[in-house]
Structure formats: structure tokens, C-alpha cells
């Protein structure tokens, strides 16, 4: 018998331990919105868990354990506020376990047997990438330190040169002033001597 459409009055579906193969239909969450229990465990189901299962708002029990499902657990399943039983153990699932609401009540046994899963309630924590830049290498540090010393050395040279220039100008100015005074005094004394000599000759 072939149904033209799935009966909406179904409250529970249990097809566990039947060696079914293939993917879970993507439309399952749109066709069985009145479902309270879904058990697909102990088959050979592959592919991903359909995110449309998050549309089964009245779902209380979901068992997908002991299959070959892969990928991540859809975060849409965290919206199922009536979900009391959840089991996806012994699959090939990966990624972080959704958090919040009913997912905070499930034990680690609901997720065991999936080596790629991480996060609460499992003891395996999810790896968080570190965005901080790696420490500079030794050669880079030596180059930076050499450059810093070189720059600092040039600063000292420039400061010393400027300071020496200022001191040189001051000393030069003092020397020039004293030399000028000495020349004026010497030249003045000679002028006086010449005047005295001329006066003596006249007398």
C-alpha cells in the first residue's frame, strides 16, 4: 500500500534494528510535525542529521544511535523544548554539541562513541583557535634588538653632536670675544705708544 501523504496523526515511529540503509529524508521534519517519538537506531543510516528535525516541536524522544551518521548535530535540535530522551551515540558525528535548554539535561552516554564530538557533557573540550600572533623567532628578535640598538646609537650620536655643536659655538663665541678684547687692548696700547713717541720727537 502506498500513501499519497504521510498521516499527520502518527505519534510515534519505531523502525529500529531493521538494517535500513541510506540517508534520513530531509523532509522528515516537515511531514511528521505531530510526532512525539522517533526511533531510527541500530540501522545503517548514513549522511547528515536533517536540520528539519528541529521542526518537530512536540518531539519527546529521538534515538539515532548505532548508525553511520556523520557531520554535526544540527543546532536547530536545541529548539525542541519537549525533548526528554536523545541518543546519537556510536555514529561518526563531529563538531561541538549544541548547548542550552534540553541539551543541558542529557548525559554523556547520549553522545559517546563519536570521536569527533566535543563539548558538554563530554569530557573532551572543543578546541578554540588562538588568534594571538605567534611569538617572534630568535632571528627576528635579534634583528629587532640590533635595529633598536642601532637606532638608539644614532640617537646618542645625534644628541652628542648637537650638544657638542652648542658647546663649540659657546666656547668659540667666548674665545672670539676674548680675542677681540685682547686685540682691542693690544692695538690700543700700540696706538698710545706711537702717540707718545711722536710727542717726544716733536718736543
From TrEMBL:
Keywords: Cell membrane, Glycoprotein, Leucine-rich repeat, Membrane, Receptor, Repeat, Transmembrane, Transmembrane helix. InterPro entries: Leu-rich_rpt (IPR001611), LRR_dom_sf (IPR032675). It is a single-pass type I membrane protein. It is found in: Cell membrane. GO terms for cellular component: plasma membrane. The chain crosses the membrane at residues 152-176. Its main location: membrane. It comes from the Eukaryota. Belongs to the RLP family. This is Leucine-rich repeat-containing N-terminal plant-type domain-containing protein. It comes from Fagus sylvatica (Beechnut).
Amino acid at each position: 500500500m502506498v500513501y499519497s501523504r504521510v498521516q499527520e496523526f502518527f505519534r510515534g515511529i519505531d523502525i529500529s534494528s531493521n538494517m535500513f540503509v541510506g540517508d534520513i529524508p530531509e523532509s522528515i521534519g516537515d511531514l511528521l510535525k505531530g510526532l512525539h517519538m522517533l526511533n531510527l537506531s541500530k540501522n545503517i543510516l548514513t549522511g547528515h542529521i536533517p536540520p528539519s528535525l528541529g521542526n518537530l516541536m512536540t518531539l519527546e524522544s529521538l534515538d539515532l544511535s548505532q548508525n553511520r551518521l556523520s557531520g554535526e548535530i544540527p543546532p536547530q535540535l536545541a529548539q525542541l523544548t519537549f525533548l526528554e530522551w536523545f541518543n546519537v551515540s556510536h555514529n561518526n558525528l563531529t563538531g561541538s554539541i549544541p548547548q542550552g535548554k534540553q541539551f543541558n539535561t542529557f548525559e554523556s552516554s547520549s553522545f559517546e562513541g563519536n570521536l569527533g564530538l566535543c563539548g558538554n557533557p563530554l569530557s573532551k573540550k572543543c578546541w578554540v583557535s588562538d588568534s594571538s600572533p605567534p611569538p617572534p623567532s630568535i632571528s627576528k628578535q635579534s634583528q629587532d634588538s640590533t635595529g633598536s640598538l642601532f637606532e638608539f646609537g644614532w640617537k646618542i650620536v645625534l644628541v652628542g653632536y648637537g650638544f657638542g655643536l652648542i658647546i663649540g659655538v659657546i666656547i668659540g663665541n667666548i674665545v672670539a670675544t676674548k680675542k677681540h678684547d685682547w686685540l682691542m687692548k693690544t692695538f690700543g696700547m700700540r696706538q698710545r705708544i706711537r702717540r707718545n713717541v711722536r710727542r717726544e720727537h716733536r718736543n
